[in-house]
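During the no-cost extension, the postdoctoral fellow (Dr. R.K.) reprocessed legacy sequence entries with the updated structure-token encoder. One reprocessed record is reproduced below for audit purposes.
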Amino acid sequence: MPSMHDLATWEPLLRLLLQDNAERLAAPGGFVTGQIGRGSWSVPLRRPGTRPGRAAQVADMQAEFDAVRRVQRALADAGADGASFMVETPEAGKARLHLFDAGPAVESGFSGAYLGALVLVEGSVAEPWRRLPDPVRGAMPAPSADAALLERTLRERLPDAVGATEEEIAETEDRLGIALPDELKALYRVTRSRWEDYGDDHEAVIRVVKAVGCELFALEEVYVADNASRPAPWKFAAMDAVETPPDAAVQGLVGSPGWIVFGDTGGGDRIAVDLTPGPGGHLGQVIVMSHEENCGADLIADSVTDMVLDRRPEEGHAAGRETRPPAVAWVNARSIPSVVAAAHPGLEALSIGVWEEAPVSLEPVIGLPRLRTLKAYPGTLADPLEIAQLTGLEFLELGPEEWRVLLDAGAVPRSLSAAAIEVHGDRNPLPIVALGNELLSLWDRPLITRTILEGDLGSVA
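Re-encoded structure tokens follow.
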């Protein structure tokens, strides 16, 4: 099998790309881009239409599948997760392939060969991922928490279940580095929820779900949902904020050393016992963390006993009432109407999106004590050099032209931990990669490398 940097590896895919993009590649400066990962790919090829009454067949796209799999095998051999590329045709029948290796300082991109966030400080994460729970003095279990009642109820519902031993529970506590609350111990004394315990009883899992109220994890799968367990790319994480209203039952955290995950909703949302509740919550309450959100969780029940007995919190108890302006502001043609309207002392993240008016000034947010993120759609800033006055920024996303202004003026904020280049339209990625390397070099970070493979396809074996 040829290697990743052998043109023969790419030859079948290049032929398809040249065939389906002939007019585009023949235009002055023409190019196409794409990405191939071990389990997915995005390449600009035309898919054949399907006939009415007939679903798409693998055979319809067999040439594409075979060409991509050839590259994927080379990726696996090289121990690489994926490859981004650009193709151009300097002469008829010839192809020039640019392979990009983003290296350890760049997060995965989201479109073709364009870049994800540049991680300027090794190991850095957005501010919400550095937050720990606020202590809530006097937090107590809910009056409904009753480990004995919980255990009796579950034994009645699951008389044949295999429970965990005290030794197995102690091993789990040692692994997690935290003592399991009494209700969770009681639950697992009734059933340790291992597949091998069910044997040929295929209905057992359904009975456990109905008895407990969720898809119960095996005891050895229980884990602590700390911040690291809920990762997110910088481009998204920088626009999150931890907000906990004064009467909230649940703290609006990314994760917590006191969130012990023991189940799932069946749709990917994790269910946990909460040992670090919000000001209006109870110690040992049950919460759910959405897989579609990076921060926060919602209250399911005041105790595990309540969850098993299907007793839900009182209406409105789960959600805190927040009267302060939001810590994250989206200024655009359909949301907050101006930077002035978004500005307040608690503002942490500001996004300036598609804008139908004149470019805006950042003067209203200069000096705000908590502002750490700025994202500005290309062309929306009246004076990009105002960014130099935002001394607390840890993440900055700008268009290439705005970054060029800052670089030429030596005004890139040194407070940054990560940055991103916002690219819109069909732009050649080579200047974008070069711009990214300029930013990485300011922090002495590993640069993006490029390998060029070129040849006459007619001569490739």
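The mean pLDDT is 91. The radius of gyration is 27 Å. The remaining legacy entries will be reprocessed before the final report is submitted.
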